[in-house]
């Protein structure tokens, strides 16, 4: 049995979703030979600690009752204090300076603690620095959950396609904008109406600007370009246009052509071209997937085109990617 | 009809002007000229591509006149609009003068707007248009898209292009 002590930093929907899945899959993971113990859970207002493994269910119930965490400690206090193998960083993304996530990640790596994250901000801001810090301190970093939710994109390229040169990646990388465009098209309704509905359903955040203005997709492109295509690009290198101006009439005009409109992120190594923009996509092409689905087309020198699709967001789906990275690290290091 | 021809010229000052003069003398409208001095033939001469708008009789006269002036016609034929691109424009298209946009494409001589469909919602909201452009070649289409891109930026119009697959 391989045992790993895990800390979860950030106990919002993603962090709590991961903790729940670890608890739910305890027996299944044991059959597979893994014993994952969540030893700390840290959020902005405190921490729960138990080096023998926390009772996740009771912590979630406690949070639902509105009770505070038991210890007034932050993530950085616990890094040197608690014995842990993997720190899972799930705090909200900040693409301006990457913090607080970047600070958590770098401090963990410097202390030889492996990191798994769903937080895009640190990877967008400091990909090179994070990788160098991990290497220097002989620690691993997994970030499959930063792009495409449940789609095993980064690990697919790094393992199965590792002999291929990735020349271009394009696809739908944001479920919220895809949901809005799909609904607008099907129901011939205005953008504002559907956005409001998506917020009420919890598909869009209260501030949906990251999703609908293409910022989220652009951040993911930067991560893919730097980590899978050997590029060295910044967020500012991406030309970004979102979906806020798409009208029901434009979708009608596209429909008459046998097309729909999708928010497409594209990165091509030749010419260092990174772009996010609404594009006409024919119905009979894979990139026309609807609802909250994500899809990615990877163009390589040997395999040609590889297309992969799946649910791009949601706590449960993101947990699949986080758990995959956790188990990879456990296999390598524990 | 639109005719595209390739002429062989010596790489010397004034040869292009000497080739154009007999064409103009026939009352023929020159639509555009592609003059690339970098692409030389084995004999050191250069090829100049000239597209003209002319009637059959004028073409005959022009060929004769070019031969008299010792200008070799490498190829000549009717030009066809073979490249096609359809895209969608979103914005205050009518208020920002759609005629001006069409005019600028048509006056290039190498591309035309062949189809345009406009859908207008209630007043004050932005309208949408589907535009199909045809051009004589890939390079000309690219040039056309640059013109459209500049105009769209100036007029605050969003363009939705087809995804390249």
Descriptive report:
The complex is a heterodimer of chains A (about 325) and B (about 160). With about 325 residues, chain A is an alpha/beta fold. Chain A has 2 domains: about 1-150 and about 315-334, NAD(P)-binding Rossmann-like Domain (Rossmann fold), CATH 3.40.50; about 165-310, 2-Layer Sandwich (Dihydrodipicolinate Reductase, domain 2), CATH 3.30.360.10. Chain A contains 13 helices and 12 strands. In chain A, helix 5 packs parallel to helix 6, helix 6 (about 120-135) runs parallel beside helix 11 (about 215-230) and helix 8 (about 175-185) crosses helix 9. Chain A is globular and about 60 Å long. In chain B, strands 2-3-1-4 form a 4-stranded antiparallel sheet, with helices on one face. In chain B, strands 6-7-5-8 form a 4-stranded antiparallel sheet, covered by helices on one side. Chain B has helices at about 15-25, 55-70, 100-105, 140-155; strands spanning about 1-10, 30-40, 45-55, 70-80, 85-90, 110-120, 125-135, 160. Chain B is an alpha+beta fold and about 160 residues long. Chain B has 2 domains: about 1-80, 2-Layer Sandwich (Alpha-Beta Plaits), CATH 3.30.70.260; about 85-160, Alpha-Beta Plaits (2-Layer Sandwich). Classes of the chains: A alpha/beta (about 325), B alpha+beta (about 160). The interface of A and B includes residues 248 and 254 of A. Strand 10 (about 275-280) of chain A pairs parallel with strand 8 of chain B, so a sheet runs across the interface.
Short summary:
The complex is a heterodimer of chains A (334) and B (165). With 334 residues, chain A is α/β, with parallel strands linked by helices.
């Amino acid at each position: 049995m391989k045992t790993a002590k895990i800390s979860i930093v950030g106990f919002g929907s993603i962090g709590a979703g991961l903790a729940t899945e670890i608890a739910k899959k305890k027996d299944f993971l044991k059959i597979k030979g893994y014993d994952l113990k969540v030893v700390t859970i840290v959020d902005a207002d405190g921490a729960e600690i138990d080096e023998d493994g926390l009772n996740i269910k009771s912590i979630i119930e406690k949070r639902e009752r509105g009770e505070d965490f038991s210890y007034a400690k932050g993530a950085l206090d616990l890094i040197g204090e608690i014995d842990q193998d993997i720190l899972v960083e799930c705090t909200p993304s900040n693409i301006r300076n990457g913090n607080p996530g970047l600070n958590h990640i770098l401090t963990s790596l410097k202390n030889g603690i492996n990191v798994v994250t769903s937080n895009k901000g640190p990877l967008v801001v400091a990909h090179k620095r994070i990788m160098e810090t991990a290497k220097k301190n002989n620690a691993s970093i997994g970030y499959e959950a930063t792009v495409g939710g449940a789609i095993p994109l980064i690990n697919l390229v790094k393992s199965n396609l590792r002999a291929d040169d990735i020349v271009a990646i394009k696809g739908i990388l944001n479920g919220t904008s895809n949901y809005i465009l799909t609904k607008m098209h099907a129901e011939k309704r205005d953008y504002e109406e559907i956005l409001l509905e998506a917020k009420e359903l919890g598909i869009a955040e209260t501030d949906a600007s990251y999703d609908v203005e293409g910022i989220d997709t652009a951040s993911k492109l930067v991560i893919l370009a730097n980590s899978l295509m050997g590029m060295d690009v910044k967020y500012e290198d991406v030309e970004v246009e979102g979906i806020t101006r798409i009208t029901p009439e434009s979708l009608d005009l596209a429909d008459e052509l046998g097309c729909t409109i999708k928010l497409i992120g594209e990165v091509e190594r030749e010419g260092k071209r990174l772009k996010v923009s609404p594009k006409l996509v024919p119905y009979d092409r894979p990139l026309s997937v609807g609802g909250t689905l994500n899809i990615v087309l990877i163009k390589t020198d040997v395999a040609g085109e590889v297309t992969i699709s799946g649910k791009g967001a949601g706590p449960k789906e993101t947990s699949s990617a986080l758990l995959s990275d956790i188990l990879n690290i456990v296999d390598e290091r524990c | 009809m639109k005719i595209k021809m390739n002429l062989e010229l010596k790489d010397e000052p004034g040869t292009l002007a000497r080739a154009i003069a007999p064409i103009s003398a026939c009352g023929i409208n020159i639509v555009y000229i592609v003059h690339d001095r970098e692409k030389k033939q084995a004999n050191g001469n250069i090829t100049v591509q000239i597209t003209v708008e002319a009637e059959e009789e004028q073409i005959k006269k022009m060929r004769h006149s070019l031969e008299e002036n010792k200008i070799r016609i490498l190829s000549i034929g009717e030009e066809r609009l073979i490249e096609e691109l359809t895209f969608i424009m979103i914005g205050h298209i009518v208020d920002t003068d759609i005629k001006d946009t069409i005019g600028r494409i048509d006056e290039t001589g190498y591309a035309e707007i062949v189809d345009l469909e406009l859908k207008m919602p209630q007043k004050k909201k932005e309208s949408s248009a589907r535009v199909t452009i045809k051009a004589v070649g890939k390079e000309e289409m690219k040039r056309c898209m640059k013109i459209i891109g500049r105009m769209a930026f100036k007029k605050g119009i969003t363009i939705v292009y087809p995804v390249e697959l």
